[in-house]
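User: Sequence in, structure out. Go.
Assistant: Echoing your sequence, followed by the structure tokens.
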Amino acid sequence: MRHSFTERLIVVLGTFVVLGLLVTQPVISGAEKEVKRTTNLMAKLLSGMVIYSLYEEDVQRVVKEVISDVGFPIVITDQYGIPRAWEGIGVNPNMFTQSQLNMPQRLKNDPNFIKILKAIQNLKEVATPIPIKKGDLIVGYLYYGYPHVLSYMRILPFALMLIALITFILFYTFARSIHVYEIETIWVNFAKGLAHQMGTPVSALFAWLELLKEEDVPDYIIENMTHDVERLKAILLRFSRVGGAADFKEHNIKSIIEDTISMLRERFLKNIKIELILQDVYLSCDRELISWALENLIKNAYEARSNYMPTIEIRNFVENDECVIRITDNGKGIEPQYRKKLFRESFTTKKRGWGVGLLLTRRIIEDIHHGKIRLVRSERGVETIFEIRLPL
């Protein structure tokens, strides 16, 4: 069972996220436990000291020394909630003197003091503050957070997911490019080999036709055989050019389209309305290959016809120094899940077929003629539009 690109991408990203969580979560949990253990020990240490008030200058100096080497944000307040010591919150621990902190009303507009108060609120949301006691008497509170490195570790699984996404897309694009290149290489080599191998018997058939003309053979038989052999010769000519050097000459696109339609009417364009809206546009191109590309698109439009008034419209015009050819039909349309595969891989919805028509068409238009081909839009029973743009 083949899985879509989206399904494969979800599986890959999900795997990376799970692996990232499995790797980082034990480390994060362990670090959080260590921080809690350290802060509890610190609170007990401060409680064990003969501390009756945290606003005394000697006590504040001791507290600052105790917390100076911690590796996580911490703020110690007195029993009234006034900050007395802090570390790791982005404010210099010696920013304010004891006298200044004893009068917090005078600091209410100071940006650094405001920053300390905001840090207290933020730390309160992270973890429950630990009371600092002397006996049963609460003399202060210890607010703490977790090391900043834990924040990075928490986003590590998603960083891995992003790396996996970029890597997967790059590898997928690279693999698709190789896949398309391999397919095109196979078909180019096949085209060269077919043209070479069939060239001799086709030449022999022309010689036999010349002999038949000298015999008593009805003219209509000779004419039909000549027509079929000429058709075979034209097919081999196309294969030889798509697999080798193209024959660029000045041609009228209008004439190429008309001749292609005339030829296809004899072959299969039956019971379908063909509307031609054409202009004389001259450009340098390989007539045989452009005709082949048009034939592939017209044949697809014909095979997608509906039972109710099937119509194919072909128009050409000049826009932005390009010759634009649009082929529109009102047939079955192209399902959304198939549209991205057009021109990219050997794809077909037919029971019989190799699915290389659009691949060859893309090679003719884009690789050989340096133009562009795309599906403009497709709505079932309304219109499906393919567009070719060839540089003037």
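User: And one key feature?
Assistant: The chain has two domains: 5-146, 246-391.
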